[in-house]
Amino acid sequence: MSQKSLILALMGSTLIATGALAQDATLTIESWRNDDLTLWQDKIIPAFEAKNPGIKVKFTPSAPAEYNAVLNSKLDAGSAGDLITCRPFDASLALYDSGRLAGLNDLEAMNNFSDVAKSAWTTDDGSVTFCVPMASVIHGFIYNKDAFDELGLSVPQTEDEFFAALDAIKEDGSYIPMAMGTNDQWEAATMGYNNIGPNYWKGEEGRNALISGEQKLTDPQWVAPYATLARWADYLGDGYEAQTYPDSQNIFTLGRAAIYPAGSWEISGFNAQADFEMGAFKPPVQKAGDTCYISDHTDIGIGMNAATDNPEAAKTFLSWVASPEFAEIFGNALPGFFPLSKAPVELQDPLAREFASWRGECESTIRSTYQILSRGTPNLENETWGASVAAIKGTATPEELGQKLQDGLASWYAPQQ
To answer: Could you report how far apart the first and last alpha carbons of the chain are, in Å?
Structure first.
């Protein structure tokens, strides 16, 4: 070997060794959460890079409504980032099934999550998980503490107490009892039906029985929540039919309504806009002593582009996302988005703490329509929006709504035929 060849060979081996030691790589993250940009740039990425000096990370979000289309076009073109933020259930499952997302069963850190936490990013047969769970949102009710103190109301635990409180607020007349409209439809299902429903169908027990075909949407536990929603109409204020989701947010944060059927994702915005003290209560049980169930809905995860040029660095990052350090940063920087790892997180925000405390008191479940049951036409999730609105407006009976939903599901879903 000539001296020049020897020098080149030595240089090459030195570069390889240096690269291996430092794991030099730049990772790019695709996401729809463009409102999180400063959180990633100021807190999450610096914390990771401090522990992993050879790996640089760039967070490059798209607009939420455009994310799916933008991501798919980038994947088709081979220009997508190394790490892909995962929506729950079918959109991400389709990416895994088409070979776009890598399976993560070999990532030891996945043991930090329960099966329920992983359910949004696991294949139907449970054999492969393909995204690291990041956070869930919890459903319940946010209330104006000043209004409750003024009217001498205590936090309702049962449905009878809940409606008694609504009656008292309505009779007093100072506040709209509850801020929710039906104009946008989804909120009637998301903050209505799937908020109170798990107490009727017993959370995961009922949801899984619907998937297996053991229960039907005409069964009492699936119909009864519509009857309860029908009672809400008396408390939603004049013109609720034309009231949009932002209208409802404004009515509550301006102090005009006493109760807001909520998802915990409202916490940051409400903290910034409301000038009164707020509290939260979980969906009331039907009678005292009943087991309570909460919708603790898996909302956001992160996975690895199967075509990444930096698989080892990407796995290093994903393992860190599964760590208590990440959970602590994320849970406190975005109150209301709750880390899904088994490690307890000390949350600073009192409202977020209240929501999270229900995990220790109640059984957790996810929204009933999100896994498997909304893949066909008619789409059960979208049909549930319309049914929830119809229940509140009283344009159909709960039994009619259950039958319509059951007929739609059975028209394409074999276990329900």
So the answer is: 75
